[in-house]
Amino acid sequence: MSCTRASASLAARASVAAAVGAAVVGVEVATYPRWRQWCVNWGATVDEVAQVLPGDELLTDPQVVTTRAIGISAPPNQIWPWLVQMGPGRGGAYTYDWIENLLGLNMHSADRILPQYQALMVGDGQRLGARGPVMRVAVVEPDRALVLHSDDGNWVWIFTLNPAGDFTRLVSRNRIAQSSSAFGRAFTTYLMEPGSLIMERKMLLGIKQRAERLAGDGSKTAR
Known about the structure:
- By secondary structure, this protein is an alpha+beta fold.
- It has helices at residues 2-40, 46-50, 80-84, 97-102, 182-217, and strands at residues 64-72, 125-127, 134-141, 145-150, 155-164, 167-176.
- The longest helix has 39 residues, at 2-40.
- The chain is globular and about 55 Å long.
């Protein structure tokens, strides 16, 4: 009898959880058009969203474009080392490692500059997980721009550093070729876009924290 009651209780809880989940999804789908621009352009100014960046030409007709940005109280040369060492098995992504590693990405965010990963060159590639895309370096302009382009041509990830008085604007732009299926488009719009904001916001804040600490310490970058 107790087993029957326990099973019934678990079933009831599962039903409630499913109902709550469905309600949350319903609210997001209904309201997302109102806050989508904030989501895909978090932290970026109108000019930064409209600006043509190095690497934009690598994917001329993307279905998804996100431009997110943050101000950092440090010069470009103290931010650049944190960018070039990013990647799986390298300096990580400065975001939620536990989420990245649930996906098998081997991300371990470094809290120091790693000299062995500072010599990034055009053509260098990194695979995101065992079955993920290979992101290959397309542009390296030290202290200015870093562009990664997936081998399948469907993703371009651009970073730029723009001096602005006493601080630097770090801009991160993703250009993505979306799936042609209705399900694929819905998945990208309602799940991947908000999910990418959670991860990328943490990444930008992580770079800001590390670079500002470096600037405050007066440390010299490893080049």
